[in-house]
From TrEMBL:
Residues 12-79 form the HTH merR-type domain. This is MerR family transcriptional regulator. SUPFAM superfamilies: Putative DNA-binding domain (SSF46955).
Length: 118
């Protein structure tokens, strides 16, 4: 199929943006907040290494699906709690607290917000 690259291939910012479903300016913003350091060639064209792609996927998962903030993800990185970047089974909590999902937490947060607004 055209357009598919091997897992070990470098990706342009456009390709990574399409894969993750985020705008290119978001990826450039992430470069200022996280250790994403793509190679830059002529014309400042960005080429993301496989390790950068894996990290971007993990960041996207944490921000968009698990409900973390940028600061929360930065803290996980600082504490070295993203070993095995890109692996879904990477433990994010030191101790399991319950079987509550990110979606459940977002619903609870919305209910609390509505209650406080009333």
């Amino acid at each position: 199929m055209a357009g598919l690259k091997a897992d070990g291939a470098f990706r342009t910012i456009g390709e990574l943006s399409d894969e993750l479903g985020v705008a290119q300016h978001i990826l450039r913003y992430w470069e200022t907040k996280f250790p994403l350091k793509p190679l830059q060639r002529a014309g400042n064209r960005r080429y993301y290494r496989p390790a950068d792609v894996a990290l971007a996927r993990r960041i996207h998962q944490l921000l968009a699906k698990d409900g973390y903030t940028v600061r929360g993800v930065q803290k996980l990185l600082r504490e070295g709690r993203l070993d095995g970047v890109g692996q879904a089974e990477t433990p994010l909590l030191e101790e399991p607290t319950s079987d509550v999902s990110g979606a459940d937490l977002r619903r609870i947060r919305e209910r609390l917000k509505r209650a406080l607004d009333d």
